[in-house]
Fold each of these.
Amino acid sequence: MTDPVLTLAADHGLTRAAPAPGDSPLAIRGMTVSYGEKPAVFSVDATFPPHAMTAIIGPNGAGKSTMLKAALGVIPRLSGEVTVFGRPIGKARDRIAYVPQRASVDWDFPATVIDVVLMGLYRRVGLLKRLTGAHLAAARDCLDRVGMADFTDRQIGQLSGGQQQRVFLARALAQEADLYLLDEPFAGVDAATERAIIDVLKALKAEGRAVVCVHHDLATVARYFDHVFLINVRRIAEGPVATAFTAANLHATYGGRLATAHLDQLDLGLGGAS
Amino acid sequence: MSSLLDALLLGAGYNAALVGIGAGLLGFAAGAAGTFLFLRKRALVSDAVAHATLPGVGLAFIAMVALGGDGRNLVGLLAGSALSAWAGLLLVEWITRRTRLSEDAAIGAVLSVFFGAGVVLLTVIQTMSAGRQAGLEGFLLGSTAGMLFQDAVVIAVGGTLAVLATWVLRRPMTLVAFDADYAAACGYDVRRIDLAMMALVMAVTVIGLKLVGLILIVAMLIIPPVTARFWTERSGRVIWIAGALGGTAGYVGAAISASAPAMPTGPIIVLGAAALFLLSLFLAPARGVAAALLRRRRFQRRVHRRQGLLALARSERVHDPLTLKVLRAEGLIRPDGVATDAGRAQAARVARDERRWDVAREIHQDAGLTGRYDGLTPIEQVFTPDEIAAFDRVIGGPSPVGGPV
Amino acid sequence: MGNEFVQFSLTPMLIGTLAAVACALPGNFLLLRRQALIGDAISHVVLPGIVVAFLLTGAVAAIPMLLGAAGAAVVAVIVIEAIKRLGRIEPGAAMGVTFTSLFAGGVLLLEQSDTSSVHLDVEHALMGNLESLIWFKARGWGSLLDPVALAALPDELGRIAAVCALVIALTVLFWRPLKISTFDEGFAQAQGLPVGLIGFGLVGVAAVAAVAAFDAVGSIIVIAMFICPPAAARLMTNRLERQVGWSVVFAVASAVLGYVLAGYGPLWFGGQNAVSAAGMIAVVSGLILGLACLVGPHRARVGARGEAA
């Protein structure tokens, strides 16, 4: 193996250990997604760890949400493979719970809070089986866990943004999945909701489930998450907060948009020095 | 064939000539007026307007007969249709504003209910002694057969007035159609301009009723703007291209219809416009389907080529079938997947490009640059040769340039 | 009275009611998906469909014409989707281009072909002829138990009843996937639901309902029933289950009231002839929607619409 080209590549840090997607809750290989003629996500590899909370971070337009949606097949991929717990994603749908961005649906839809949560059970209940009292009780329990038990029969259009986000989370809880994928769950919600959501997510992690959030608030990364995945069209870095959430990686991700003064206020991991 | 030539040269009789001129002008006005609707994403409002004319036609007929006049007076019928179309428009606006229903539901409700009411009135007219030969069904599909000279004059004059109105109002309407918020900030009364836009659409509809009928006039308001959009990215030009396309379809369609039997004017005009649309959809240079497919294919191959070379540079195996195909087709890998000499050379270039980008991003930490680091932009497009040489000095490389790094 | 009612009014009223329900059910989902006007588009392309079927078979037979109409609806839906995607044209404009062009083609074909000997014309396609679907053999309510009389029921009744039953069965069977993919397409996709197929299936069912209803009652009712009862129902409640229930009630009320008003209304005003039942049914559904817009308990938009915190 003395191929000069490959040696060159090795010199330049281009080689890396092939990801071991075996038991990763979510592993992505060589995924490219484009809107028109510009890649929004280019050749991204990612291996999210089990029993952990991971934040996908990057500047606006860096492809964070696109990466999540394309992995789930909500938008088409130009290339790439996705595995969930070692199996092709199409065969592991029942182990995934997805919380889309709140703005992606029409909240004027004729449904009540409990209706939305029950949607999380549809996959298990099937087409025709009747919803029983046990199902209703399970849905109410999920609402209770996000602090929305008092709003069961409220029309969803009458909720505040934070309450809508909690209902979405309750629906995901009802799915009883092993992998939770959340797209900007903290965007535009009140402080109480943010606390409620993070408590639920931490409880999920404690139960041994994996949580992946598209996240935009750098100030809370170190407090909320164990792992980070930095993306700006390409994968910039990935790893535990302590080693990957560094000033150098943030500079590489955000470019000059992130003033050094701002960086100093962040609760960076141990490897903060560049 | 010679009769078609005659018709095109206005030699097929006085009425036919007037109808031809009227159809051309009407087509122009419809294309231009429809552009404003299309750019405002309200193209199907014209559908509601058109169907809402029918009860007006019926009521006008009944009223004129009740007053002892001739129920078939075209000016009277058109005035009635304008009134009911206006009522329909206001209802669409009222439903959208006052209730939670969206505009498409309001459009559908108004068009079906008004049309239903119109049909009820038509059956009432059929039972009136004066209504036996009213010929109001002609307003459904248009009919130039047996058209009076006076009717042809109404169409020609109406078409001229509609074109003039479009010309006078083109600036405020373009502004509102393009960016209503900006127009409001500039001090324009968006609601009034919207209403003027609707009034123009209504005028075109009413004039076109006799010629192409209320169902097909919708086509003249929608198809030319959609077609024009394929040929330009500038809203100002869409208006005139749409007008020209509509005018051509109208004039030529009327001529064909006048030159042969069993060639109803309305459908011929609409099918002419549809043919122009199909041509544009497939063949337009920038937005056409053929061009877009080619671009998409080239783009996808570029992505796979680059990803494949990156994998080669990292001495990873390539699995993706399309990537393998692209690399093989260019002789970059052997059939068994191992890189050829050419493949290794290309991989080395890609690896160098990647490394240069890494360095570039370390040196120039600015936002614009990160945006162009998309895996496909060659670094030569962003930096000068001198700058790249500077990156190479940082990299070092397999054959050291010399001097400390 | 009884005899005359059974003979002349029972079957048209039943056919109108079944057609109204078959259209209103898918109409609910189309309305919520902002695709209400697809019903408009489908009902316009029915004409070219039956004309082509007539030219191919040379006869005015119900089954080939229904197939032709259904084929035209499918073609139209595919063309609309293709124009939307390939040409990057907004849905409304893509629909407008498609259905007007196909309709124009249908009218031209009709003019060019010799259909003077057969009963095939545009007005009939638009307005239907509900009044003519009478039960000749009926001699009163007792005929409902008489096999000979039952065999002479208009064919349209059997067809629309079968389609209505099909629509109801499919709505019940696919209720959950329909509801979830209509409310939150991304979530449905992440669960592995084939949302594209569900959307196409919905439009397909709408097309079948439209074609069967059109056969009996003409295009106007079809468009009106796709939109007016579901729209009025949306203003009555904030739950999908109840909305669909209300829409069925409104559809039945429109059909029955409209038919009665068309048949007997003119008599009250001193006229002698009935007016178009199809037109009157559309008008009644519009009046119901108008009332719902004025006094429906849930007529106004309320609350946060996804932006406010």
Note: Chain B has 17 helices and no strands.
Amino acid sequence: MTPLLSVQNIRKTYGTRIGCTGVSFDLYPGEVMGIVGESGSGKSTLLNCLAGHLEPDGGRVVFDTRTDGPVDTVTMSEPERRMLGRTDWAFVHQHARDGLRMSVSAGGNIGERLMAVGDRHYGDIRDKAIDWLGRVEIEANRVDDRPTAFSGGMQQRLQIARNLVTGPRLVFMDEPTGGLDVSVQARLLDLLRGLVREMGLSAIIVTHDLAVVRLLADRLMVMKDGHVAESGLTDQVLDDPQHAYTQLLVSSVLQV
Amino acid sequence: MIELNNVSKSFTLHNQGSAVIPVMEGATLSVAPGECVALTGASGAGKSTLMRVIYGNYLAASGQVMVGGVDVAQAEPREILALRRDTLGYVSQFLRVVPRVPTLEVVAEPLLAVGCDRQAALDKAAGLLARLNIPERLWTLSPTTFSGGEQQRVNIARGFAHDYPTMLLDEPTASLDVQNRETVLNLIEEAKARGAAIIGIFHDVGARERVCDREINVSDFTPGMAA
């Protein structure tokens, strides 16, 4: 089986400071990988390098495209990478505001991505938008409201709907449940897990919440000072951490 | 189906003076299809550790852990995930689920994961929940709010939903009443009859004597505790 995403020796530095370095892994279709680590450990830098938002200083990010097979996305042209970002990839930002157009209606936010890939029939776009609002548990009668009129949790769900409507194969998520209260978090986790299974999505989730990765991620990568401290099966890394930093991280979690 | 060869396990506690605690040495055992083997030994002898090494959430330090042709000690995460999905079931003592997911879905999930038809999966899940005396009015609720015994039974229903060829059972009859204990023992006997290789921890002596074909004393593998 060809990996959907093959990351080889990614390095990104900010001047003399290391963002992340020596990161390699393969992600297979249907797999969900979590990246954890304290703030400043380089996990968001890594995610942004993978998603093409930052240009890495070295390494390859090879994505198995539908048409041309495995292609290095670091060296592909900007328009190609943008097309990938609209079709096969999705990026869920930590702050929904970064991923939504706040002055456009909820339906417009979802429809925009559909139009970007060539949908033109207004009725169809609106129907799909309403269908997706339903899937993320937003009432259909809110379709014409702007996201500014939504709560934080609703905005986050709208962002997810906007990202998934075009049926991407790989979703990058940066702290998707950060800043939400726990009941909303649980809803979102339930939703994400259902979508991952039904659509066969692969996902890379950056978070610092170990409970979230235990429920969502098959595999886990632990980052420390820009390096990968440890990686493996999620429950193995959490139940039997090998690296000193992971042991510290796991033992620092408060039991509820 | 399950074959361990000279498996050892130790924990290194980097943040506590790098203490190295050897917990298992030279663990060797094999379980054939249709056989149920009980792990025995005093508390702390390493029964659960051995189970976790087989399931892959503890990393074996050395040796071979063969389950259905895959060496769990060496396998890639995705190979272990596939093994757990198709071949290796595990009934732990704790139910760990995504909040808000209805009980019926929780039980049907292992079947859906192997590509079973949705309706067939839900039907089988309903059958198991009924056998384990979970009232039907609870099926649409999340098990996170259930009592300990109910959660345990949901966990068992989930563990037996898919017909795994190999199974690990960690105290499946703990905290169950007589009737439900009987149902669980029947489920284990049915699994054996269809050819499943089972390793279990049973503190309930009666249950152990009824379903287990032989016992393995884990103390034999405990460094410094060999009988």
Note: Chain A touches chain B at residues 28, 31, 186-187, 189-190, 193, 197, 214-215, 218-219, 232-233, 235-236, 239-240, 242-244, 247-248, 251 (CB under 8 Å).
Amino acid sequence: MSYAYLFKYIIIGDTGVGKSCLLLQFTDKRFQPVHDLTIGVEFGARMITIDGKQVKLQIWDTAGQEAFRSITRSYYRGAAGALLVYDITRRDTFNHLTTWLEDARQHSNSNMVIMLIGNKSDLESRRDVKREEGEAFAREHGLIFMETSAKTAANVEEAFINTAKEIYEKIQEGVFDINNEANGIKLGPQHSPAAAGGMAAGGLGGSQGGGCC
Amino acid sequence: MASLLASSSRAARDDQCTSGPEEGEEEEDDDVFVSSAGEPLSAVAVWLRPRPLLDRLRRAEPPDYRIDEFGFRVEEEDGPEQSSSKLLSTPFAESPKHRCGAVPSGLVWLQWIAHLEFTHNSETAPMSWENMAPVLPRTDKLRAMVRGGVPHSLRPQIWLRMSGALRKKLQADMSYAEIVKVSSCDSLMCNRQIEKDLLRTLPSNVCFSSLSSPGVPRLRHVLRALAWLYPDIGYCQGMGMIVANLLLFMDEEEAFWLTATVIEDLLPASYYSSTLLGIQADQRVLSALIATYLPDLSALLEQHDIELSLITLNWFLTVFASVLHVRILLRVWDLFFYHGSLVVFQVALGMLRMKEEELCKLDNSADIFNALSDLPGTIDDVEKLLEVSFHVSSSLTEVVVESHRRRHLAFLMNDQGTLMASPSRVANLPKQQVNRPQQVDPCERPVDETERVRTAAAGAVLVDAACLCSAVQLEPRPAGALFEPGDWRREAERAAPRQEVVRRLTLTSSLPPPAAHERRYVEELRPAGGAAPLPGPDRRHRARVTRYSRGRARHETSVVYVLGLNLSTWCCVPAGRLVGSLRSNPDFPLLSRRAWASISAALVKYGETRRRAQGR
């Protein structure tokens, strides 16, 4: 299926916070209470519509265990968006956010849009991290914030789509150079030959036009 | 002959039946299921079969999902793969008919028994697993038979004897039961993480799918025991995959020793440690081998800027357990337990070769990525896979892999050293308000930090050595060998200014001396939060301290060894002169005498190898 843009996302956060479940809920619209351990990286993809345009999200789901962080550097390369996930019922997963954020900022391009996600919002009775704390953290670090539940699907669509919208806006504002794939954005097949070939020299303005028409 | 066969066959079966801990009464079940090979769970050790499920099957009230011989739930939508004739054509576990050679594949079983009898050297003692030598002699005959596949019922015993696991078990200071005991009351370590992952390891297998499944407590014991035995590793996700798959066929003690053998002997060092340095190096080795053996694929990956290690890390970390169908996996493991890690490379190259043409037809990176990550699941013909694997990598040897490995390990340590040496570089973040956990979680031992520093220091030494060579004006070696002359110089330039070198050397000297390590070990053993000192060190504690310091020494030596080898590869000078130049340099006062001795020895050894190679 053809698309106007392709965005690369990564999902990061401690082990067991529900990264793979979020992905499954978003791509397959189902919840699997016991998910296989993610070792290395898994992939998912889904098409969404933003501003009347087809956008393909290519999502990389990564392993969360501490040891794997030394090798996650290459995950970040060329990602346009990141979902940074913690578990609202486990404070330690929230406490580790700063180190995840450091990793993300260090190894990715500076324009990457990061969405902070407090997952497992259906487990209100076991809540260990207040919503306000998540909001404060997001505000302080310039992230978008949302609480989701991969189980009930609450806010899952929104999390992925809002991130995409933000990326899309940045493209419109000319912040992202969409001719540079290192930014995690690709023009769709029907757009790219003209845009990449003919307008590369024209820079942002030109390629943006390519995406719009 | 016939009686020997009968007795050995009984021995093999008795052994399999009785070696499970909670055994005995289920023996009758064995007959029911073995005689109907191909039935659900028929290829799984009897003690691992969930009783309630067996009851339902016996009452002919099967659950609403299909279960295969290995206890995996088969989803009907998996159709194409599962119904593949190659995969399902023959039942996996042999029935008694096989064992008397009444069916063609039974001949293989007889052949194995005959081979075992042949190698069983005692004339008088009856042939049973107990009387058989713990290590099978490595012969051409055995190698050929392993290539053809080990009969399923013999696998546990053969694997233990091919890999050296049984010898390890017999020579160990501590028994498995003792280790389980100490590791279960050990409230530290990674037991909490293990607990979380127990149900996530093989969720689709009925032997591991719920807390009451028979596989789960066994998996818990083995993982805890391994974490206790290897404090530098603890628990690494991915290990569980190997253990769980082994537990399907052998009892937990055997699975434990076999996994220990995988960690210690079959795979190179640091595959599962907190740095994952060993497995990262192997990913780079794979990439180098692809460039040699599969140039088309290599070009494709390069053209689309695809980082293959994201996909293959998983293959290597679990020795394919997480990606191959178990029927294929077992045949690969037959070879792996005989040949070691070379097989992992051969099979990885073979799989890629089988799909190379298909992959090269794809024209966008997302499709290529997906095709690559789905690739192992599409393999359904193990004979073809092995044939292609050995064909494509026919010139690949342990030595080639090892020399690539050393080189990439050096680069990696180098990178990490560089990373570690300039923590100020990560500071472009807003000021952090969130507090790090105040209390050190006893489950997350601080060992990781030390390990990281140690590795970083090792990497730094390497870079510094390169700098130093430049400082003492050693000539770079001529072109055409393992390293291009420019390589080490580039590394040296990357390594930054001179004061940085000195700083890093200081870092090297901050490695904790063994005594501090042992002290910390004792600290660790102190009951959490309790001030009561431990009772005087008993045998077990002493054994562990010894193991700890031995491990440390091994680590140190390997670092030094890598350093020495790379120095000699980088520089075209006789060993003696190199060591002399380094020693006389005031920037290198911190390496111990033992370290110099090791470097020296490594260099001499390397020089000899090279001379031999050149002479030939």
Note: Residues 192-213 of chain A have pLDDT under 50 and may be disordered.
Amino acid sequence: MAMTLRGEVLIDGAADGPLFRMAKPISFWGGIDPKSGRVTDPRHPDYGASIAGSVLALSETIGSSSSSAVMLELIAIGQAPRALLLGRPDAILTLGVVVAREMGVGSIPVLRVPVERLPTSGLARIREGGEISFAS
Amino acid sequence: MELGPYETSIAAGAEGAAAAMAMRIVAEAGRLLGAPRLIEIGSVHVDGCLYHGDSGVHFVEKLVADGGQVQVPTTLNVGALDLLHPERVRGDTHFRDMARRLMDAHLALGCTQSFTCAPYQTGHRPGLGEHVAWGESNAVAFANSVLGARTNRCGDFLDICAGIAGRAPYCGLHLDENRAARAVVRTDTLSFALKDTDAFYPVLGAWLGATFGETVAVMDGLPFGLSDDRLKAVAAGAASTGAIGLFHIAGVTPEAPTVDTACGGVMPETEIALTFDMVRETRDRLSTVDGNRIDAVAVGSPHFSRDEFSVLAKLSKDRKFAVPFFACTGRDVLSALENSDDFSVLKSAGIEFVADTCVVVAPILPESGDVLMTNSAKFAHYGPANTGFDVVYGSLSDCVESAVTGTVVRDETIWR
């Protein structure tokens, strides 16, 4: 079933990819391998999965403030999510995207959305301006 | 988000390209956080000198090349190398070279060579109500909660940019209304003996973070005069399992003379009585393995203080360890320790000192091992993912006894 909603644009852009709605918040530092995008925290329910190439939905950002650096590195080496959908305003992961843009190594759209209302899987397409559509 | 005339001129390049980029990034962070403006800050603690990949090195080197200099006193968190014991950290030439370049680039920007995650125990102590911009989650929680300074959790890059710009976004924990407790935690059913045990405090922090995420809570019923070491254990635990940037302890922390004051005179949204079962369950969750054998012990997350070394020296006197025992600390604490009797005791017991970095952020632990014992909630939380070791949590005394035998020795009598 298709569903569309509008997110608040934190960083504008267009992207599409498989939706990966994380079961629990995660600290990118200490939770995501900066070389591959894989979830390395064995206590996390998504342990072993990869965020690379996904449209990643996170209800909140937790843990280490080094997560900005992990985000920048993932973008720089091409292993980042294609977009971030965040439940709360955040200047840690999003700042990694801001710095990536300043450094000219790339950028991804970041939108604030009510993450709990999103589907748990399927495809997500983000248009410039913040429109997001989901398809199963 | 509106910039003042000074900020606008800096962002436009009046003081060079590095200051301009730094001001733009701080302003972007302000926009993302919904801040109406920036605020002048008194100091910075930078978390960004730990190597995660080449991109971060290139960013800081660009700030150096473009003439960047910090405008306020700025301390540095850990790097990925132990510059005092270079053999301590394994790693190929590329890793060592880039990790060193990142540390050097921060020094070139005018930051202090502190390389510690406990800067508040080596003299960097902003005052009550002072606006600062700190990174490193435990240090942020300590600065806000214990010192009463005001900082948001600054991610890597925002911290160094705030130092160069001398500004931070004016929002979040800089504002009175976001510093009031929304939750109250009662601890009166817990025994006084438990509350007088060091090993309780990392667990309390881990419970707080896991329970409240980023909500400000005030805890009641804890002993007055809690030491900085116990408070830093709460801060580190809470900022690892959750995103706690500020907590209050009634009668202990400066913004909480009473529970009511900490709540800002507003009725709290939640009230929880912390029970012994919750404490024990949280403690058990800090261990990932149930076996008997350990391969190494690590303490000092956050970095060990001079006081903690005194306690460790008492416990280690005339003992010999069967497994490697790492104690992580800052170079300032290490240099204060080096001329003391404690140092000779610790040396002869076989303690391996790690300075400028720690075992969870750099490849230091033995390559062949599987199980790490620690007294730190933060090591217990990040250890498995970052080192591949399983972890066993215990008190500092448990850690010493276990290191002597190479098997888990735990004094269960403290947990009641």
Note: The CA atoms of residues 94 and 110 of chain A lie 7 Å apart.
